[in-house]
Sequence to fold (204 residues):
Amino acid sequence: MSSARRAPRERGQAAERTRERILRAAVEEFGAKGYAGARTASIAERAGVNQQLISYYFGGKQGLVEELRRRWTRAQESVTPPGATYAESVAAHLNATLDNPDWSRLMIWQALGDSPVGESDDEWAAAQRARLREAVERTRGRQEEGEITDELDAEFVLLVAYALTFAPIALPRVVEGIVGVDPLSKEYREWVVGQLAAMTRRRS
Fold:
């Protein structure tokens, strides 16, 4: 293949690698400082690129966070394999959250309201609420099928699972002080899954 024919593909691959470097740097920056505290200059420095490329590829800071939201949503949709049990589902979400602490910190910032103000933010918040209601209904479905107890509200079961999943990111020292293990460790994850399984076990 001639260099003339190969060049467009190589330029495309190089551009995609640059985009990915910027996105990885953005996750780190947003996770550490939130949307309000993050600076495109710092993201560019982390990525080792010219700051103007952020505007070129993403239109600025808001475009970056919107792309990261889309990726987080897609990733969450594929976390739990079809047919997973309740315990398997909890374990999968726990691993996805604790294996990616920068991403998880970004989502905590977003949940606290640290995000761009505009139509896209309202749309994302509405979609997030819809996904949570769907998760409640899936939990209720597990109760109706007899997989987990119906002695607890489905909303409470889901809220406890979320709290225990994000606590190591939001309150690492508190978790370590209470549980006595590294909040990101295998021991913590196994403990959470076991405790939630015991709490939600259907009584005969």
